[in-house]
Fold this protein.
Amino acid sequence: MNLPLKDFAYYAGIDPGFSGGFALMSSTGMTCHAWPMPVVEKDYDSQREIDLNGLRAVLEQIRRFPNVCIGLEWPTTRPGEGAERCERFGRQKGYLEAFCFLKGMSYYKIAPNLWKGRLGLDGKTVVGANERAAKLFEMYYPGHTALIRGPKGGIKDGIMDALLIAHFLRTRSGQGMKSVVQRFGKDSVEAFALMMGGGRRKRKFGTRSTDL
């Protein structure tokens, strides 16, 4: 899968799925926005569909920002999933890619194990993975905690993943790496993880460098 080779002014992440979401952040990480996946609710879960008008509206908001790069998570189907569920999910991914393409936006399809592996995060089936991911986001963006947590502290994992996809793309850029060094220091674990690819063997994120 290709990844951007140039810097952008803004980075967006899309986590597909009915509980997914959209996120946008500036190259400096100072500005963050998030939107839930627009869904048409039906009487039964199996009848839910993406709200295409809502999808168009969200992407129009993202497109208003200059020089945006989008990371579209592109998971494969998992063994044991039913054919109907796989068909609906595949159709949804197709909608997302088609809208990005038709709106002339720069987008990249990113496998979940790529961005999570580079950030030192586990898959959702691993116990505690969501909380560790939330701590990573809150470490970098303490002023935007409300984007990923509900009023009772629960994690909005779809929006959180979208934000972390945007974070992954942002911190691969020259401006993004520079902002990390300025924030944590050139000798910090955070800066080292970026330079070395951030693999989980190098560091389990969710713990601050001061705790190591």
Q: What stands out?
A: DSSP finds seven helices and seven strands in the chain.
